What we know:
- The chain is α+β, with helices and mostly antiparallel strands.
- About 15% of the residues lie in helices and about 35% in strands.
- Residues about 5-15 have low confidence and may be disordered.
- It is a single-pass type II membrane protein.
Amino acid sequence: MVVPFLAMLAVRSWLVEPFTVAADSMSPAIPSGSIVFVYKPAAAMGLIRNGMVVAFTSPVDGRTVIKRVIAGEGQRVAIRDSELFVDDVAVSEPFVDHSRIDATYFGPETVPPGRVFVLGDNRAVSVDSRDFGALPLSAIQGSVLTGHQ
């Protein structure tokens, strides 16, 4: 009995951990109540890339939340009339329901070293890097495994 329990504990601690999404900031792709899996080695091995959904410790309240990585260090982020630009190139966002977003403007802002810029797919309700700034890579717990990457 002890060995299977320890094996399961090791998997959850170092490999994959289930997580229940508690808010609608990533809807419609990942609605509140969804169960996703956080792949922890992605953060430890430096595998975080633009477009990935990541779990991290919120700098606002310390809870675990998920958002999409939009830009890495040295990249410039701007939102003009609800359209996302990274390094002055429009980014295709098929996972964002643009009909739910009023005209939004942000930036431009350059992502500092050792940080990433994260946004929720549901921009109207998401608290993200537009509010708390670029996220330290050290806050990322892992990448989120879903069918909506």
